[in-house]
Amino acid sequence: MAPRNETVHEEYSFACMHCGHGWERAYRIQHHTDLDGRPFVTYHDPGSGERVPSPLTRPVCPNCDTHVVRIMRAGQVHTAEHALPHE
Fold first, then answer.
1. What is the DSSP letter of 85?
2. Residue 49, Cβ neighbours under 10 Å: how many?
3. For residue 59, which of 20, 14, 26 has the smallest C-alpha distance?
4. 25 pLDDT exceeds 80?
5. What whole-number distance in Å separates Cα of residue 17 and Cα of residue 21?
6. Residue 75 pLDDT > 90, yes or no?
7. How far apart are CA 85 and CA 42, in angstroms?
8. CB of 53 closer than 8 Å to CB of 62
9. Whole-angstrom Cα distance, residue 56 to residue 69?
10. Contact (Cβ atoms closer than 8 angstroms) between residue 33 and residue 4
11. What does pTM read for this prediction?
């Protein structure tokens, strides 16, 4: 069986449970099937195309470098920021 490749774009929201930092990030996710028919995925930065670690396995807070991170659907951080009172 020949390998199959498919690319999708996904975005995730993240919230650090340690310091409270929130951020969002987009990924280009490539779905592959190896020569033995086993599926696997690789994650890439959509801007540079550089391969990056999966956000689903031990995400790291860019603010405090801890791994106590909650992953949510895209838009959650943006929605919460707009709900906060502005000075």
1. P
2. 8
3. 14
4. yes
5. 8
6. no
7. 39
8. no
9. 10
10. yes
11. 0.72
- Residue ranges of alpha helices (H) inside 2-72 are none
**What is d(CA 28, CA 52) in angstroms, rounded to the nearest whole number?**
10
Tokens of 4: 């199959």
Q: State both tokens at 71.
A: 């992953």
Nearest to 54 by CA among 62, 44, 63: 44
pLDDT over 90 for what percent of the chain? Answer: 63
**Residue 40 predicted with pLDDT over 60:** yes
| Strand ranges for the chain from DSSP E | 5-16, 22-33, 39-44, 51-52, 69-73
- Judged against a pLDDT cut of 60, whether residue 14 lies above it is answered with yes
Q: Tell me the CB-side half-sphere exposure of residue 61, using CA atoms within 13 A.
A: 16
What does residue 36 show for φ and ψ, rounded to 5 degrees?
Answer: -95, 5
Count the neighbouring beta carbons within 10 Å of the beta carbon of residue 22.
19
Helix (H, G, I), strand (E, B) or coil at 42: strand
